[in-house]
Amino acid sequence: MSTKLTLKEISQLADVSISTVSRVLSDSSYVKSTTRDKVLTVLNSAENNKNSNKLIAFIFPDISNLFFPLLFKGMKSISKMQGYNILISNTENSYETEVEILEDMLKCGVEGIIYIGDYAKKSLIQDILAKGEIPFVFLDRDPDIPNANLVTSNSVEGMYQSGKYIMDLGHEKILYLGGIESLPVEQQRMSGFYKAQKEHKISDKGIVKKFANYLMDDAYMIIYDMLQKGVFDFTAICASNDLMAFGAYKALNDNGLSVPNDVSLIGYDDIPMSLVLNLTTVRQPFEEMGRNAMIALSNKITRQTQQPVRSVLDAGLVIRNTCKVLH
């Protein structure tokens, strides 16, 4: 059995040491059967991939949001080892564009799709999945489709940590700045926030929810408009992604308000630009998510995995300097 993978690459894909790979290749008896199977699965996958066109697609909603290119970086680290080329397509948050891209990708013969979508109408996706022509792996956003392959992070726990932290600091008048309310991932984050609110026994009167489509400009306009109309009466903003937190920060600053002296602010994702503002946020393990999605798709293409994949990684609070204690 031949493969172009190096020992190091095989060890990374199989999650074993290089010396273990060497022992498997030399047919040593000093290897557990389960470990041997992991290495052989990687080797079989590489062998099967020789007969494929090595082309997959990555469909995502917004190239201006660094979160998605960082997912791609993780995917690329695995696809390079496995010899896959990735077609990337930006839907620009348009469902119509999303449908066109999906149809085009199917026509051009990609072997699999890693997909982050709006899922406004799931019927098209479900029809494609039902045909079983090519494998899909849904990344980040849960499509809420039975038996779908999914790699994501724990949105409920992540937003629970965000809400709990801001409430532990004494804030009870909080603006929750969400993305797209209809998405399951947003529903999960709101659920986590509500859990923290319930634990802190904070009245619904103190919480207002606004939705800015995960976009910086939309968040800016929402906060700016509230400030101009004199209806902004919050001590903290809890945003469902960093881009919306950036938009909120600029709107506050343009109206003479300081973060965190006047308003505390917390984001979600921990994209690199968060360091510029010293933004307190929730970190998603984007590169690991990308790697796991690529491995899952490769295993589906080569039929190494029959059962649906569901990988939910941890998200964690990153405390910086945009939140303050209320006395």
TrEMBL record:
UniProt-listed Pfam families: LacI, Peripla_BP_3
Keyword list, A-Z: DNA-binding, Transcription, Transcription regulation
One of the record's GO molecular function terms: transcription cis-regulatory region binding
Top-level lineage group: Bacteria
Keyword Transcription regulation appears in the UniProt entry: yes
Residue span(s) of domain HTH lacI-type: 5-42
SMART domains the UniProt entry points to: HTH_LACI
Gene3D superfamilies: 3.40.50.2300, lambda repressor-like DNA-binding domains
Protein name (record): HTH lacI-type domain-containing protein
Organism whose genome encodes this protein: Treponema maltophilum ATCC 51939
